[in-house]
Specification:
7 strands, Double Stranded RNA Binding Domain, 10 helices, alpha+beta, single chain
């Protein structure tokens, strides 16, 4: 009876005080054996002060595991990661701007001045030997930008067109990711610069003139009022009167004499000119005033043309259409 009571007390002591300590030690050993895991232990009271089985669970909860999350992106060389990221960005640029050279040319038309220049050169190599000629190799295309800042984009390819395409894509990539153009290829200006330009345009212009300049301006204006203004107004008035009033038409080598008879030229005076002042005709080439011909002048002109036509008709070869005329 006494032995039984001793065993029961011993088992209870083991379960209350020693078992939690053993379990915790085993748990800590197992935790340290895991790779990729870290454990954090809170500062708590000693395990021997736990008085029930619930203390085991509460003590085990003090072991909080934190997982280290690994990513495949971090594996490998840094240059390879940058290269893959750049390739993805270039692919996006190609999707946004399928014709990069056309987009850059349109960008130039949307800016007040030319923002870039394109240069081409071909790599030529001279092989060893006298009989071997120089070989033209790849093409190099260079886009030199002056806006938004001085930049150069250079690419090499087998053909001239491919080199230009690659360089244009590189330029668009830099402009787009630096927020200098939008998805449509239109330029994006800096708001700070635009605000400065607006303030400068709206500012009032202040001009300071020295006393000597003021005296000189007053002297020039006085000379104009006294000696130049009257001459200018008189000349302008005479010129205006000559345009309104037609002058008498005289013989001129530039005008066909057949249009006017000699009698008309002799008898044309101020009265006839006054009668025709209501309807003035100006020569379309020489700018001189002309009057319509009289009936006798028209009859003589018609007779002259008919004589010339009859004279020329004998010398011409008859045509099939002449019988139907």
């Amino acid at each position: 009876m006494f032995r039984k009571t001793f065993l029961v007390c011993k088992s209870q002591f083991w379960r209350k005080h020693l078992l939690p300590n053993v379990l915790c030690n085993k748990t800590l050993v197992r935790t340290h054996n895991y790779s990729g895991l870290t454990s954090r232990i809170y500062n708590t009271s000693d395990l021997q002060h736990f008085k029930s089985n619930e203390c085991i669970c509460s003590h085990l909860n003090c072991l909080c595991t934190k997982h280290r999350y690994y990513s495949n992106i971090l594996s490998g060389d840094v240059t390879e990661l940058q290269k893959s990221q750049c390739e993805r960005e270039l692919k996006k640029i190609v999707e946004l701007f399928p014709q990069p050279r056309v987009t850059l040319n349109e960008l130039t038309t949307k800016t007040p001045q030319k923002i870039f220049e394109v240069h081409y050169r071909q790599i030529s190599s001279a092989p060893k030997g006298r009989r071997k000629a120089a070989v033209n190799n790849d093409w190099i295309c260079t886009y030199s930008f002056i806006w938004p800042e001085k930049m150069k984009f250079e690419c090499t390819a087998i053909s001239k067109r491919q080199a230009a395409e690659k360089a244009a894509i590189q330029a668009l990539h830099w402009l787009y990711y630096n927020k200098r153009i939008d998805s449509k290829g239109s330029p994006i200006y800096d708001e700070v610069v635009l605000n400065e330009l607006r303030t400068k345009l709206n500012e009032s212009i202040e001009v300071s003139i020295s006393d000597n300049s003021v005296e000189r301006i007053e002297r020039i204006w006085k000379d104009y009022e006294e000696s130049i203004k009257d001459v200018y107004e008189a000349t302008f008035k005479n010129a205006k009167h000559s345009v309104v009033t037609p002058a008498v038409l005289t013989r001129d080598s530039t005008i066909d004499e057949d249009d006017f008879s000699e009698d008309d030229l002799r008898t044309r005076g101020g009265i006839e000119v006054a009668d025709m002042s209501e309807k003035v005709q100006i020569h379309p080439v020489y700018g001189k005033s002309i009057t319509p011909p009289s009936e006798s002048t028209l009859a003589r002109r018609e007779r002259t043309l008919r004589q010339k036509f009859e004279k020329y008709e004998e010398m011409l070869t008859p045509l099939p259409i002449d019988g139907y005329a």
